[in-house]
Structure formats: structure tokens, C-alpha cells
Amino acid sequence: MTPAAERVAAACRVLGRLGLTREPAGHISMLLDDGTVAVKARGPSESGLRFAGAEDVVVVDRDGTLLSGGPGLTAPQELAIHLAVYRARPDVTSVAHVHPLMPVLFGICDVPLLPVIGAYDPYALRLLARGVPTFERSVLVTTPSLGDEVAAVLGASAACLMRGHGVSTVGASPEEAALNVIKLSELAELNYLARQLGEPRQIDTAEREAIVGTGQTRPELIDSAWRFYRRLADEKAEER
Fold first, then answer.
1. 2 or 182, which is more confident?
2. Distance from the CA of 70 to the CA of which of 58, 123, 203, 233 falls in 20 to 30 A?
3. Confidence of residue 23 (pLDDT cuts 50, 70, 90)
């Protein structure tokens, strides 16, 4: 068990326990200092994201060749998403791909995510300000060329929708990539609920720009948010 494997597994557990992916679907990866990639594995002995442990994480090289992992475990079919993003984005050291219901609904219906919140959640507003594009294909992303298509759609954003499929998010750590899934899902839920009450009003442009600022959330705020979700996920596990 390595610290990187446990961080990847912990990020998986949080998303699983928050109900942001289905069954064993989805995976999170982390780019390691030596250029290899630790990623949540698939296989007959794996645990789904909700129950992931460090033993469910394998290490591959930048070509996707398996370097280490438990018996029967392999890299996920859609490893191509992770490898392509790492090729395209030197600022990214973690990628998450999961299947959260509410963002998937927005992609299916071509409904835009609107900036309907301000001080309620500056993190989510900054995420939206960077753009949330949609990858228009619903196929499994299993080849380098398809991975490159996803990375091109993602561009400089921190998240993208994948029509009829899921979402992919990125960050400087597994914790940030997972938080971006959480914030994207909460933003989609707020948009959905607002539309049930009436026509959502977007916040004032000048106020939006003031809140977004540099577009970056301070690392200590990311750490604080992550501690909350880790504790929340642990409490949910204890209730079972």
C-alpha cells in the first residue's frame, strides 16, 4: 500500500458514498513523480468505488502498460481518458471519470448550466466560469484517438460532460479532481431545482466576476472542503 494508492482510493470512496457514480462504474487516477499513473482498477476481485481500498489501485506507464497491481486486476477500459489528458495538460496530476446522475441529465437534454449562485458557493462558480463543455459522443473511450478527442473538448476547463455517459474532471490532486465532480453535481442539482420553481435568474455579471476573481480556489480552502467530505463519507459508512 502506497500513499498515492490510498489517496486515489479515498477519493473513489468519497464519490461512491455520496452516490455520484453507479455500481463499479468510474475511476480516478494520479500522475506519480516518476511519470507512471496510479489508477483505480477493474477486475473480478475489485471493489466498486464506494468500497475501494489501496489494494484496488494499479500502476501503469504512460502507454497504459500494467506495471503493478493485485492478482486479476487490470487498468480500466477507459484508461485512455486519463492518459490523453495527461498528454495534453501538463498542469493536471489527477483525472476523475464517473457517472453522476444530475450532470448526465443536463448533457442528455442540452440544458446549459447557469451561474445561478454567487457567495453560496464560490468554488462551484469558479468551476463553471472555466467552462463546462460537452463531449458529444456516448461511446466507451477505449482508444488513444478517442481519449485525445475528450482531452480536446475538455481544453483548459476543469470538467466536461460526456453525453449519455458521465463526466470527466481534472485537478492538481485526486482530492481536487473529486471535489470538482462534487461541485459540478451540486451545481447541476441547483440548476435543476431552480427550474422547477420558475425561470432561473443568473447572478449579476459584475458580482460574478468579483467572486470568480483569478478563477482559482485557494489550496487551503480545497483542503478544508475535502476534510469535510472525507468525514461525511466516513460517517455514512459508519451508519451502514
1. 182
2. 233
3. confident
d(C-alpha 209, C-alpha 140), whole Å: 37
Residue with cell 440548476: 191
Known catalytic membership, residue 207: no
DSSP output for 193-229: HHHHHS-PPPPPHHHHHHHHTTS---HHHHHHHHHHH
The model's pTM is 0.94
C-alpha 69/C-alpha 179 separation (Å) is 26
Name which of 21, 34, 139 is nearest 78 in CA terms.
Answer: 139
b/e per residue 77-107 (b: at least 16 CB within 10 A): ebbbbbbbbbebbeebbbbbbbbbebbbebb
Q: Convert the pLDDT of each residue in 31-44 to its tens digit.
A: 999 999 999 999 88
**Sheet holding 94-98: strands in order across?**
66-68, 57-60, 37-40, 27-31, 94-98, 166-171, 159-162, 134-135
DSSP state of 143: S
Of the candidates 23, 46, 55, 78, the residue annotated as catalytic is 78
- Give 42's DSSP letter: B
Q: Which helix (H) or strand (E) covers residue 115, if one does?
A: none
Smallest CA-to-CA distance from 189 within 100, 126, 98 is with 100
